[in-house]
Protein backbone atom coordinates (compact mmCIF):
# COMPACT_ATOMS: atom_id res chain seq x y z
CA UNK A 1 0.00 0.00 0.00
CA UNK A 2 1.35 3.36 -1.04
CA UNK A 3 0.08 6.59 0.53
CA UNK A 4 0.39 10.00 -1.09
CA UNK A 5 1.94 12.28 1.54
CA UNK A 6 -0.02 15.39 0.58
CA UNK A 7 -3.54 14.16 -0.19
CA UNK A 8 -3.55 10.93 1.84
CA UNK A 9 -4.90 8.80 -1.01
CA UNK A 10 -3.74 5.18 -1.02
CA UNK A 11 -2.85 2.85 -3.89
CA UNK A 12 -2.87 -0.86 -3.14
CA UNK A 13 -0.55 -2.46 -5.71
CA UNK A 14 -0.63 -6.24 -6.22
CA UNK A 15 1.56 -8.32 -8.54
CA UNK A 16 0.36 -11.82 -9.49
CA UNK A 17 2.09 -14.66 -11.31
CA UNK A 18 -0.52 -17.23 -12.27
CA UNK A 19 -0.30 -21.02 -12.38
CA UNK A 20 0.50 -23.14 -15.42
CA UNK A 21 -0.73 -24.60 -17.74
CA UNK A 22 -1.98 -21.46 -19.49
CA UNK A 23 -5.72 -20.92 -18.91
CA UNK A 24 -5.94 -23.87 -16.50
CA UNK A 25 -6.06 -21.93 -13.24
CA UNK A 26 -3.76 -24.58 -11.81
CA UNK A 27 -4.92 -27.37 -9.51
CA UNK A 28 -8.00 -25.52 -8.23
CA UNK A 29 -9.10 -24.01 -11.55
CA UNK A 30 -9.50 -20.51 -12.91
CA UNK A 31 -12.50 -19.41 -10.90
CA UNK A 32 -10.83 -20.42 -7.63
CA UNK A 33 -7.67 -18.55 -8.64
CA UNK A 34 -9.72 -15.38 -9.20
CA UNK A 35 -11.63 -15.84 -5.92
CA UNK A 36 -8.36 -16.33 -4.03
CA UNK A 37 -6.94 -13.13 -5.55
CA UNK A 38 -10.06 -11.21 -4.56
CA UNK A 39 -9.86 -12.60 -1.00
CA UNK A 40 -6.20 -11.61 -0.75
CA UNK A 41 -6.96 -8.06 -1.88
CA UNK A 42 -9.94 -7.79 0.50
CA UNK A 43 -7.80 -9.01 3.40
CA UNK A 44 -4.81 -6.74 2.81
CA UNK A 45 -6.42 -3.73 1.16
CA UNK A 46 -8.71 -1.21 2.82
CA UNK A 47 -11.97 0.42 1.79
CA UNK A 48 -11.17 3.47 -0.34
CA UNK A 49 -7.87 2.13 -1.69
CA UNK A 50 -7.22 2.53 -5.38
CA UNK A 51 -6.39 -1.03 -6.41
CA UNK A 52 -3.93 -1.93 -9.18
CA UNK A 53 -3.54 -5.65 -9.91
CA UNK A 54 -0.90 -6.59 -12.49
CA UNK A 55 0.99 -9.62 -13.64
CA UNK A 56 1.56 -12.62 -15.80
CA UNK A 57 -1.70 -14.37 -15.02
CA UNK A 58 -0.83 -17.29 -17.34
CA UNK A 59 -4.42 -16.75 -18.42
CA UNK A 60 -5.99 -14.83 -21.29
CA UNK A 61 -9.52 -13.68 -22.16
CA UNK A 62 -10.61 -17.27 -22.87
CA UNK A 63 -9.89 -18.34 -19.27
CA UNK A 64 -12.20 -18.57 -16.29
CA UNK A 65 -9.60 -16.64 -14.28
CA UNK A 66 -9.80 -13.52 -16.46
CA UNK A 67 -13.55 -13.84 -17.03
CA UNK A 68 -14.08 -14.04 -13.26
CA UNK A 69 -11.87 -10.99 -12.69
CA UNK A 70 -13.92 -9.02 -15.26
CA UNK A 71 -16.99 -9.44 -13.07
CA UNK A 72 -15.26 -7.73 -10.12
CA UNK A 73 -12.64 -5.33 -11.52
CA UNK A 74 -12.00 -3.10 -14.52
CA UNK A 75 -9.76 -4.74 -17.12
CA UNK A 76 -7.42 -1.86 -17.93
CA UNK A 77 -5.02 -3.47 -20.40
CA UNK A 78 -3.40 -6.68 -21.54
CA UNK A 79 -0.26 -7.50 -23.46
CA UNK A 80 -0.02 -9.68 -26.55
CA UNK A 81 2.67 -12.14 -25.43
CA UNK A 82 1.51 -15.75 -25.13
CA UNK A 83 -2.00 -14.82 -26.23
CA UNK A 84 -2.48 -11.94 -23.81
CA UNK A 85 -1.55 -13.46 -20.44
CA UNK A 86 -0.11 -10.22 -19.01
CA UNK A 87 -2.92 -8.13 -17.54
CA UNK A 88 -3.69 -4.98 -15.59
CA UNK A 89 -6.89 -4.68 -13.53
CA UNK A 90 -8.13 -1.91 -11.26
CA UNK A 91 -11.12 -0.76 -9.26
CA UNK A 92 -10.81 2.68 -10.83
CA UNK A 93 -13.15 3.50 -13.75
CA UNK A 94 -11.52 3.11 -17.15
CA UNK A 95 -12.38 6.75 -17.88
CA UNK A 96 -9.77 7.73 -15.25
CA UNK A 97 -6.94 5.82 -16.97
CA UNK A 98 -4.66 8.37 -18.63
CA UNK A 99 -2.72 6.02 -20.91
CA UNK A 100 -1.90 2.37 -21.51
CA UNK A 101 1.06 1.13 -23.51
CA UNK A 102 2.95 -1.94 -24.61
CA UNK A 103 6.58 -1.05 -23.85
CA UNK A 104 8.17 -3.99 -25.69
CA UNK A 105 10.18 -6.91 -24.44
CA UNK A 106 13.31 -5.30 -23.05
CA UNK A 107 14.93 -8.73 -23.26
CA UNK A 108 12.14 -10.72 -21.58
CA UNK A 109 9.93 -13.32 -23.23
CA UNK A 110 6.99 -11.07 -22.20
CA UNK A 111 6.38 -7.45 -23.13
CA UNK A 112 6.30 -4.85 -20.37
CA UNK A 113 2.89 -3.21 -20.19
CA UNK A 114 1.84 0.04 -18.56
Automatic annotation (TrEMBL):
This is Endonuclease/exonuclease/phosphatase domain-containing protein. It comes from the Eukaryota. InterPro entries: Endo/exonu/phosph_ase_sf. It comes from Strombidinopsis acuminata. SUPFAM superfamilies: DNase I-like.
Amino acid sequence: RLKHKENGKVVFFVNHHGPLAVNSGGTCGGTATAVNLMKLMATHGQRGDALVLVGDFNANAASLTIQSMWSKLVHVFNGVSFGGVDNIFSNIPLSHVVRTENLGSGGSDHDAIA
